[in-house]
């Protein structure tokens, strides 16, 4: 059962690398992706990080609740698998375009206001 949890942790590292752009061991990757993850998912991931040293020790492994760790791994994996990287990229592009459009509108409105104030319109 502990080998299954360790395999899930390896899979979580891969999902963090591909879907969240965070590489490294699980603790480092979760730290890099912390702002992108909901608080509950981050906390479940940190529970798994804290359990890794205990899972690798044969006697201390018996002190862990493997069922809850398996559930935590499943919850984090479900969330990470649902991340759509293309949609996130498209959202960033739209955000930049919207910012540029707002800036142009604000400059144009200021230009009109100055021209009207100076009496040219």
In N-to-C order, the SSE pattern is HHHHH
Count of helical stretches = 5
Strand content: under 5%
Indicate the low-confidence ranges by residue numbers. none
The percent of residues in helical segments reads over 70%
Largest sheet: none
Count of extended strands: 0
User: What is the alpha-carbon Rg in Å?
Assistant: 24 Å
Structural account:
This protein folds into two domains: 1-83, no CATH class; 84-121. Helix content is 77%, strand content 0%. It has helices at residues 2-19, 26-32, 39-56, 66-81, 85-118. Helix 1 crosses helix 3 and helix 3 (39-56) crosses helix 4 (66-81).
Summarize the structure.
The chain is mainly alpha-helical and 121 residues long.
Features:
mainly alpha; 5 helices; 121 residues; 2 domains
Map the helices and strands:
Elements: H1 2-19, H2 26-32, H3 39-56, H4 66-81, H5 85-118
Helix pairs in contact: 1-3, 1-4, 3-4
């Amino acid at each position: 059962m502990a080998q299954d949890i360790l395999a899930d942790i390896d899979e979580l590292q891969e999902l963090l690398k591909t879907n969240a752009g965070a590489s490294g061991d699980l603790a480092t990757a979760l730290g890099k992706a912390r702002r992108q993850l909901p608080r509950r998912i981050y906390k479940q991931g940190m529970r798994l990080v804290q359990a890794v040293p205990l899972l690798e020790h044969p006697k201390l492994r018996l002190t862990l609740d493997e069922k809850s760790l398996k559930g935590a791994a499943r919850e984090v994996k479900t969330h990470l698998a649902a991340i759509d990287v293309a949609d996130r990229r498209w959202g960033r592009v739209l955000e930049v375009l919207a910012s540029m459009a707002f800036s142009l509108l604000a400059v144009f409105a200021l230009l009109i206001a100055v021209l009207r104030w100076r009496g040219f319109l």
